[in-house]
Specification:
Blueprint: E1 2-5, E2 14-17, E3 27-37, H1 39-45, E4 63-70, E5 82-85, E6 88-90, H2 106-111, E7 116-117, E8 129-133, E9 137-139, H3 146-149, H4 155-165, E10 173-177, H5 181-192, E11 196-200, H6 207-212, E12 217-219, H7 222-227, E13 231-236, H8 241-246, E14 251-259, H9 275-280, E15 284-287, H10 293-304, E16 312-316, H11 320-328, E17 335-339
Parallel strand pairs: 10-11, 10-13, 11-12, 13-14, 14-15, 16-17
Antiparallel strand pairs: 1-2, 3-4, 3-8, 3-17, 4-5, 5-9, 6-7
Bound molecules: NADP nicotinamide-adenine-dinucleotide phosphate and zinc ion (2 copies).
Family: Belongs to the zinc-containing alcohol dehydrogenase family.
Cofactor: Zn(2+)
Enzyme class: oxidoreductase
Length: about 350
């Protein structure tokens, strides 16, 4: 099969011929039709997150496609099923975390010493075929296009989990910092849920797009966020703790700031001017990741219903390196999806 192999740290991805996997007991073989490029794939292959611990290194955790073969004992999936696979597929099943019996979520990857993660510890989705445990696959809603389903597997799942983690009340105003892969979906999910929505972008050229995504207000800094009335929920989808902390003055009474963007470089610091407001206003800082399969189902259903639509740039497989390059440069509007 053809797969996008990452030959080494910070080396351009190459489409290569590699061995097609076959499904073992309990597994399915998926003919991948599309796989999104998450910024975390780019960071991992550039050595800024752990490099994929697989040989050949094939990353990608937004694959969707058809089941073409099932392994022994599989009853829940059959050839022809349209499925997706997410970042975290399973825990080890026996550590202190796993024995609690919690659903598989992004937490599993943090707390279990030996999780199965797509494109990190197990071969990823930037390939024509992928093998996964049948129970770790998700059935896609009927009729949902491959290129719209793929971004939901990580970007949409995270954005929706972040919104739901804030437990927004019906009248809450929601602000989203960073209009990229996650952020453009967070804006739409917030709007689709009936919230007055504010996009906070550092890119002036995204103002029009942010409005078309449904934002009621588009601001470029914290002062403007405050000037438009602030927000009850602020979701960080940019890789910048500094950008999040700068928006604290725009967080209202009992406000919740959800950190979904990952900043591995700088700590999150409450600015000294915000120390007293933060505790006096009863504000919270919450982390969010892939928070559970029921949330992925909700995120997919909203897209299938046409209430949220990923904006994608699609690339044929032979242009995968170009897709990665555009993601790295922040040029994609708003998710790169590679078709296999
Ligand atoms: N929590 C999770 O489970 C999870 C899952 C997937 C990804 N992530 C993280 O979520 C973040 C977004 O991922 P993505 O795939 O959506 O990336 P992306 O497409 O590159 O979008 C990130 C957006 O953040 C803004 N931005 C970038 N650099 C910035 C900076 N230095 N300061 C302020 N704003 C900046 C930009 O939006 P504007 O131009 O509008 O400012 C950019 O479009 C990353 O940190 C990623 O690691 C977390
Ligand atoms: Zn991701
Ligand atoms: Zn475990």
């Amino acid at each position: 099969m053809r797969a996008a192999v990452v030959p080494g740290v910070d080396v351009a991805w190459e489409l290569r011929e590699v061995t097609t996997p076959s499904p073992g007991p309990g597994e399915v073989l998926v003919r991948v039709r599309a796989c999104g490029v998450c910024v975390n794939d780019v960071l991992a292959t550039r050595g800024l997150l752990p490099f994929p611990a697989i040989d050949p290194a094939v990353t990608g955790h937004e694959p969707v496609g058809e089941v073409v073969e099932v392994g022994a004992g599989v009853t829940s999936r059959q050839p022809g099923d349209r499925v997706g696979v997410t970042w975290v597929r399973a825990g080890c099943g026996r550590c202190d975390y796993c024995v609690q019996g919690l659903p598989v979520t992004g937490q599993t990857a943090m707390c279990c010493p030996a999780p199965t993660t797509t494109g990190f510890t197990a071969p990823g989705g930037h390939a024509e075929y992928l093998v996964a445990a049948a129970e770790s696959t998700v059935l896609l809603p009927d009729g949902l296009d491959w290129e719209l389903a793929a971004p939901v597997m990580c970007a949409g799942y995270t954005a929706w989990s972040a919104l739901r983690a804030a437990q927004p009340r019906p009248h809450d105003r929601v602000a989203v910092i960073g209009i990229g892969g996650l952020g453009h979906l967070a804006v739409q999910y917030a709007k689709a849920s009936g919230h007055e929505t504010i996009a906070v972008t550092s890119s002036v050229d995204k103002v029009d797009s942010a409005r078309r995504l449904g934002a009621d207000h588009v601001v470029t800094d914290a002062e403007q966020l405050r000037a438009v009335g602030g927000a009850d929920v602020v979701i960080l989808t940019a890789p910048s703790h500094r950008a999040a902390a700068a928006c604290l003055p725009g967080l209202r009474v009992q406000g919740r700031m959800v950190l979904a963007g990952i900043d591995g470089a700088e700590p999150f610091t409450i600015p000294s001017a915000m120390t007293y407001p933060f505790f006096a206003l009863g504000q919270q800082i919450i982390g969010a990741t892939h928070n559970g399969p029921h949330l992925l189902k909700e995120a997919l259903d909203l897209v299938a219903a046409g209430r949220v639509t990923p904006w994608v740039e699609t690339f044929p497989a032979h242009r995968v390196a170009e897709a990665v390059d555009r993601v790295a440069k922040g040029e994609v509007r708003f998710r790169a999806v590679v078709e296999y």
